[in-house]
Design a protein that fits this description.
elongated; 4 helices; mainly alpha
Length: 114
C-alpha cells in the first residue's frame, strides 16, 4: 500500500487546487478494512494539509436555508405532478389506440362471418 502522496502527485495538485475543486477518492476502497481505510485517509489528508493543498469540503454545501428547502420541496411536487399526468396521458393514449384497434378487429371479424 502507498504510504503517502508521491512528489509528482503533490506537484500536480499544487498547480491544480486553485483552479478546480479537488475531491480525494480512495480507489478500490472496498478491498480495504475500515482500519486501513481510515489510516490511509488520515495520511492523505495530512499530506494535503502539510503541502497547503485545498480540498473540496462537501459538508459546507449541505446546509441549506429554509427558502432553498421550500423551493426544492416545491420543485419535487411539480416534478411529481408532471410525471403523474404524463404517465396518465400516456396510458390514455395507449388505451385509446388499443380500443380503436380492437374495434376495427371486431368489425372485420363480424364482416367475415356474415
Amino acid at each position: 500500500m502507498i504510504n503517502s502522496l508521491k512528489a509528482l502527485d503533490i506537484d500536480f495538485l499544487k498547480r491544480l487546487h486553485e483552479r478546480v475543486n479537488i475531491i480525494p477518492v480512495i480507489a478500490k476502497a472496498d478491498t480495504l478494512s475500515e482500519e486501513e481505510k481510515n489510516a490511509f485517509k488520515k495520511r492523505i489528508l495530512e499530506d494535503l494539509e502539510f503541502h497547503k493543498i485545498n480540498v473540496y469540503n462537501i459538508e459546507s454545501e449541505v446546509d441549506d436555508d429554509a427558502e432553498t428547502k421550500k423551493r426544492d420541496s416545491d420543485l419535487r411536487v411539480c416534478f411529481f405532478l408532471f410525471f403523474f399526468f404524463s404517465f396518465y396521458f400516456f396510458l390514455t393514449i395507449v388505451l385509446l389506440r388499443f380500443l380503436s384497434g380492437c374495434h376495427a378487429l371486431c368489425c372485420c371479424w363480424l364482416r367475415q362471418r356474415v
